[in-house]
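Researcher: Let's continue the batch. This sequence belongs to GerAB/ArcD/ProY family transporter, and it's 97 residues. Same format as the previous ones, please.
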Amino acid sequence: MLALITGGFFKIGLFLYATVLSLSYVFKLKNPSPLVFPIGLVILFYSLSLTQNYFEHVYEGLKIIPFTLHLPFQIVIPALLLVIAFLRNRKKYSPSL
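Model: Same format as before. Here are the structure tokens for GerAB/ArcD/ProY family transporter:
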């Protein structure tokens, strides 16, 4: 149990760090520290408002998330990017006579 809690803490911390650095890069901020507290509050309130109890959390994780997040981000978007890359590079490497 301690390993799960510690692993979850480091995973959330790493995601928060990546989010803060990404947003500071997007908004061209030299010092990303002012973003830590507001993004932390957004994550806190979002996590508290997602589900009301454990069973709702499990249902959402098993029935809703695979179709709304996993399918698009793991299959649809990469396949679309592959097709776009193939169509863009097709002209460059076409055999010339």
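Researcher: Any comment?
Model: The mean pLDDT is 91.
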